[in-house]
Design brief:
Elements: H1 3-29, H2 36-42, H3 47-53, H4 67-77, H5 85-98, H6 108-120, H7 124-148, H8 155-177, H9 185-204
Length: 244
């Protein structure tokens, strides 16, 4: 194995150790009570090492903020002839709901999602970051959808479609995460899957209308993702953000 691959694996192990330590601290002591120094110590690294991976304690609750955007972009890029915009979007969100934490593995992502929803209710900085992240994601998905279906959607229509569907899923999951007794990671993953499927069911049960052959959408290259504004982007010199 080349040295670069070994370094990447070591960095990923350290990053995951920090996330696991943070989740344990947040769940047992509370987000505001836990300190960066304590999280670093629990992960058996120094504070300086912590900041090589995360710009702040807040970043621990947003380790992969663009997963849903990437799922939507993949769904758009692999859409089938005759598939309508709403079907593409629903397929993307259903896939994200079926595997809400592929980038982190097992149940860690589900636990982070619950903590993020809980902390957002009491910590303004986290609440603002969560609201911004959702808005930015919706805008990017709408932009991609508009570019892929120029004959069916304008800017307003794309924004309305994405807002309706993503808002429905996000609203339902927010309520779910506020319920007590969901600490078990596997149970959380099952609930996320069930809730996502339940919210999307009314749209998924509606058959798509037949389209004439000469009106089938042509699969074209999807425009590149727009970068996040500097104010909300993790420091690229100290922390790798895999792009969700």
């Amino acid at each position: 194995m080349p040295p670069s691959a070994l370094r990447d694996r070591k960095r990923e192990r350290t990053r995951r150790a920090l996330l696991e330590a943070a989740v344990e601290q947040f769940e047992s002591r509370g987000y505001e009570a836990a300190t960066v120094a304590e999280i670093a110590a629990a992960a058996e690294v120094g504070t300086r090492t912590f900041f090589n991976y995360f710009a702040s304690k807040e970043e621990l609750l947003f380790p992969e903020p663009d997963e849903r955007v990437q799922a939507a972009v993949r769904a758009i890029a692999t859409r089938r002839p005759g598939e309508r915009p709403v079907e593409v979007l629903l397929r993307a969100l259903r896939a994200a709901g079926d595997n809400p934490g592929e980038h982190l593995g097992d149940t860690l992502a589900a636990r982070i999602a619950v903590l993020r929803a809980q902390v957002s209710r009491t910590v303004p900085a986290v609440s603002g970051r969560a609201a911004y992240a959702q808005l930015a994601s919706q805008q990017e998905i709408a932009r991609q959808l508009r570019a892929a279906f120029p004959d069916e959607l304008d800017d307003v229509g794309a924004a309305a479609l994405v807002g309706a569907v993503v808002g429905a899923v996000s609203g339902a999951l927010t309520v779910l995460f506020q319920r007590p007794g969901l600490e078990d990671g596997e149970a959380l993953q099952r609930k996320i899957q069930e809730t996502t499927s339940k919210v999307l069911a009314p749209w998924l049960s509606q058959p798509a209308p037949e389209l004439p052959a000469d009106h089938l959408p042509v699969i074209t290259e999807v425009p590149p993702l727009r970068p996040e504004p500097e104010a909300f982007r993790p420091l690229t010199s100290v922390h790798r953000l895999a792009r969700v």
